[in-house]
Each structure stands twice: as C-alpha cells, then as structure tokens.
Amino acid sequence: MTRRSNRYVTTDRGDFEVVPFASEQLAVQLAELYLRPPQGQFALQTVKEGAHSLIQRFEFNGQEYFAKQPRGRDSRPWERVLEKLRGSEVVRYAESMETLRELGFKGPEPVACLLRRRFGLLVESYIIYRAAEGRKAEQTDGRPLARALTALHDHGYMRRDAIPRNFLIDEEGDAVFIDFRLMRPRLLNSLRLTLEKDQLIRACASAADHVDDSFRQSLSFRSLYRYRRFARWIKKFRRRHKAWLYPVLLVLIVASLFQVLGQ
After folding, report:
1. Residues 197 and 227 sit within 8 Å (Cβ to Cβ)
2. What tens digit of pLDDT does each residue of 203-232 get?
3. Euclidean distance between CA atoms 104 and 69, whole angstroms
4. Would you say domain 135-217 falls under CATH 1.10.510?
5. What is the rounded distance in angstroms from the CA atom of residue 225 to the CA atom of residue 255?
6. How many Cβ atoms from other residues are within 10 Å of residue 112's Cβ?
C-alpha cells in the first residue's frame, strides 16, 4: 500500500509531500531545513553528485543525516507512471530500512521521504535518513559479514550487492547494512540466495571460513563453483591462444557463409 501524507513543505519549485517514518514533527523539521535551508546557518555537504543520484550530508541537533535523490529514476517518464502502481523509489528504500531494523539488524534509520509531483506524476523525490555508525568493512571482516548475510537469508531476504564496501562494522564488531535494498525472491529462491552469498565470498575471501559447511556442500554452491572454474578456464584459454584462435574462428565463419551462399 502506498504511503501518503497530508503534510507539505512549500518551495519555489513547488510543494513537497512529507512522508514521515520517524516522528512527524522531526520529519517536517528536517524537510523544511533541507528544502529551505537558512542562509549562513546550515552546512550542507555534497557527498556524491551525478546524473543518477545526489547524496548530501548535514547535521541537526548533534545527529548526522543524509539526503538522497534518485535523479535517474526521477527523470524517466516510465518510472513516473510505475510510481502510481508500486510506490516511489525513495519510499520503497525507506521501507527496506524499516524492515531491516524490525528484523533486528543494524542499518540507517529512515526519517522522511519528500515527494514533489506535477500533474499527479512524481518529478522529484528525496529520502532523509539518520546515518548508521561504524567504520568501513575490510577484507578481514569476513566473520561479521558472513554471519549478518546468513541471518538475513534465514529470514528469506536478500540485500543485493553484498560486498564489503556496502557494510560498516560498529564498535561491537557487528556488521551494519548500508546501500541496500531488501528483496524477498519469489522465483529460484535457493539459487538467488546462493549467488548472493557467493558474491560476498568472492569479494571478501575471509568470509568463506565463516559460511556454514552445509552451504558449501550444497548442490547449488558446488554447481556454481564448478561453473566458475570452467568460466575461468575458458577465459584463460582465450587469452593464451587468441593469437590463432580468432583467425581460425574467422576462417570457419567465412567458410560457413560461402557454404550457405553456394547452396
């Protein structure tokens, strides 16, 4: 069900609907502060800016917050139509954060989503969330990363992009999820969860030592392992023999074409 709100912030670009995820008062306060920043009294740091997204950082009452705009999705006409059916990208992102925390995992805390519409279609959106605390995950952090991802899979969810740079490690040594979008796979569940865990192992070798033995002995993982070994062999073979392999392939293709034309 699409979340709606009757709270708005007016700017020179138009009215933004404020969809609260924390207290409504805090959501409106941060929306007004971000959309109508007081000159000389508000420090806004741009972390990332490009055609696809904008991420900015600011502080309020001693807390660190981030605002993110999915510029790419906001600018696509078909995304504006799909928003009517499935809800906006930022609201679904905030709901992922909310679900993750409800499941007992650590991650950013959603505060508000800001939505501006024109003729009923979404043209600009932001999510504001409280930053998660921790240091960047490293290659030696395989144990907390593997444990957190396995626990998430046990709940039937996958996070996408399960690589170290999309996790933090907090003071207690636990993994903190960042830059994620929860998804509950409906088709090929076991295979898709296996692929994500394999992605973590390939990106963080130390995670392999902390994955359940039953997973490493499973048919899906062993099949995937054999496939990757075969793919690496093909790649290595192509590199070693490309000096003669490509000319031979070209001759065979040309010969086949002459044979077809000659019939």
Report:
1. no
2. 999 998 888 766 666 666 667 667 666 777
3. 27
4. yes
5. 37
6. 30
